[in-house]
Amino acid sequence: MLLRFSKSLVLAVSALTALASSVPAHAEKMPSPKSVLRQEPFILEVTVLSVEEKPGPHAGSSVWHRVRIDRVERGDGLKVGDESAVVSRVYDNPPGTAGTNGHRGDWRGPNGLPAKGDRARLFASGSATTLQPHFTNGWQPVAPRVAFVAADDEYRSEITMPFLAELVAKPLGIAASTHLASDDGTTPKVEAKTQLTDARALGAADAIVAFMRFEQLGDSARREFLEPLDHGVPLVAFRTSTHAFAYPAESPEHALNDGFGAKFIGSPWRFHHGHSSRTRVLAPTAEAAKHPILAGVAIPPEGIVVPSWLYHVEPLPADCTVLLWGEAIDSERKDAPQKQPILWVRNLAHGSAPQRIAYTSLGHPGDFANAEFRVIAAQMVAFVAGRSEAIDDADRAAIRAAAFSPPSTR
Fold it and tell me: Are residues 271 and 184 part of one domain?
């Protein structure tokens, strides 16, 4: 009996081997993450004017789109209103071929591509007259995806980050997602430290907004959060994100405790001026006031007082551009400098697309009750997402008027 079973097993394996060798091999071409798409020389928003399938320039036929340029995020030689050709590969495998037809998205046109009248965000190479979308997924939905990570158990980011997402979603035209602290990756739990809800979606984000504190993310969640940032996805960070991680000394990830803040933000956690203190937000210099994050922001000469106690962050790397300084009120650290940077931006080199980062050491829930801080926070998101021009005076007025009742800290 055993002998017959062994012979049957050998015959089955032989048959499978023969079948596999008869199927033409084809390498799988998976969709690229946003960090890769962002390296393309052209990032555009377009409207499709016409679609035609015809030969070249690739082997076989291609889908040719005539598009109107609606917005130029990056792209030499193009401006709003120009028209250009976009040439996409037709990628159909013969029956029985292993592999993929290539991810295109939920488009209505040929080969899973946009149809006439569709609006799309395009990541492409080529020239201003003949663009070639990143294969396979250079055609993207027109609304950039911004992921808001709220994993802080002190400052109520599970309330303030969704509130901020609501403030910016419409004026910026973004698709916002919120990722909360969790034990299982599905159920939000404020005090959880090891997972984030729907962490896998972070890889599709065009920008990440983080408010984190003393996390000990497991391997999968940590990778989903860090890989986009390591590859150049823009970042907005609030307050305790300088100490986003708190791994024990024996953990192989212990270096992240100081390393995350130092690498991305420019400062690790150092110290603050005490829970009984507050911060006076000082008026910006004339040069700093020109920055898009401070456009339309009204800070009087005497400053604005907010509940956050001042963080000590100096020294900062030379590539940090400080936009606002804060002054401690009723400091418990009289031995320390009483003024510190509280808002800055920096660019980190990542191929053809520098990584934009904006950080503020403010973020107490009471800070979000301040109308000017809300405008600053919204414009931080707009800046890193490359959409500063989308917020106008009417949007700023709506952001100021938004109702918000600040919860107490934990």
Answer: yes
pLDDT digit string (tens) for 95-104? 555 555 555 6
Q: List pLDDT tens digits, range 304-336.
A: 999 999 999 999 999 999 999 999 999 999 999
How far is it, in rounded angstroms, from Cα 206 to Cα 42?
15
DSSP code of residue 377: H
Instruction: Evaluate whether residue 170 is within a structural domain.
Output: yes
Which residue range(s) make up the domain with 212?
145-401
Rounded to whole angstroms, how far apart are CA atoms 196 and 223? 11
Total of domains in the chain: 2
Q: Is residue 45 part of a domain?
A: yes
Q: For 179, phi and psi rounded to 5 degrees? A: -125, 115
Which residues lie below 8 Å from residue 404, measured CB to CB, with a gap of 6+?
163, 368, 369, 374
204 and 339: one domain? yes
Q: Are residues 322 and 214 in the same domain?
A: yes
Residue 25: per-residue pLDDT: 42
| 304, two tokens | 């604005």
Per-residue pLDDT tens digits for 6-62: 444 444 444 444 434 444 444 456 788 888 898 899 999 999 999 998 887 766 688
Both 136 and 245 in one domain: the answer is: no
16 in a structural domain = no
Q: Is the dihedral of CA 330, 332, 338, 340 positive or negative?
A: negative
Last residue of a domain, one of 86, 112, 140: 140
Strand ranges in 273-370 using DSSP code E only, listed in sequence order: 278-281, 304-306, 311-312, 321-329, 339-348, 355-360
CA distances, 46 to each of 80, 117, 171 (Å): 9, 10, 19
C-alpha distances (whole Å) from 82 to each of 47, 69, 87, 111, 116 are 11, 5, 16, 25, 17
Q: So what's the pLDDT on residue 99?
A: 52
Q: What CA–CA distance (Å, rounded) separates 224 from 288? A: 34
Q: C-alpha angle with apex 311: 306 to 317, nearest 5 degrees?
A: 125
- Partners of 161 in the beta sheet? none
CB contact at 8 A, 207 and 234:
yes
Q: Which residues of the chain have pLDDT under 50?
A: 1-27
Same domain, 111 and 213: no
Percent helix, strand, coil in the chain (nearest 5)?
A: 25, 30, 45
Reference 228, options 170, 151, 145, 153; nearest CA is 145
